[in-house]
Target: Alpha/beta hydrolase
Amino acid sequence: MTFQPYQPASGTLEHIARSTVQIPRAEQWTMKSQSGNHAYQIMVFQPAEAPPPSGYPVIYLLDANSVFGTMVEAVRVQGRRPEKTGALPAIVVGIGYPTAGPFSPHRYYDFTPQATTEYTQNSDGTPLPKQGGADEFLQFIEEELKPDMEQQFRIDRSRQAIFGHSLGGLFVLHTLFKKPEAFRYYIAGSPSLHWNQNVMQAEEQEFVARLEQHPVNVKVWIGMGEQEKTHPARNNDKASSLTERLSALNLPGLDIQYTEFEEENHVSVLPFLISRTIRFACSPES
Model:
């Protein structure tokens, strides 16, 4: 038998033009920080639903090149029926980088509190990128990005959340310790607590010491994959211990939770973290 290639009938697939898939109601642009002269790819989603009188809740999302689409689709679907899903429509502000890949090496600089001498090389011996720019990155978010977003969109400044994963999760906790008033909701997914351990411990102690004089009003959630327990870094134990220490303070205005997702690893846990984040930060009752 002679092979005959498929020939679509007139008016079928051969006449349908292909185009790039786009995310509805999302846009992006490049923004250069004044504090560090670094270029960021800012990605913003605005709901179709009308904002509440106080404005939309907002989720600031780190590593947006990798998870902006996942977060937006979850917000878009769940925000349609808050009475059923427990999640209000929200604005998503993704902070990414001008790269086609899911991650940029510059994240090592933006997300780490201080340059470390402990982690300077990858497992294959190649040098890691420059580190230690977390304070500079936080300054960009607070003094440049947030004011720009609040000028363009109707945002409820009392309902701001920040989501970060891995080194991004480390940055979320660094922000909590250094400037807790910056956000109402802190979501640290699989935070790299083995990084900058001495620095983070000192920041935690300073944070706790300030709480008695300067009460906070924050909700903190740390989520990990169960399979991360096998990693030599032992970050599940570190995250669980951090949660226990802060919970034991029994201070009003500080709510911290810890969750492990069964059978999930460091990367596969991301969709679960994102879905739970929407209810955590955008609940009608919060």
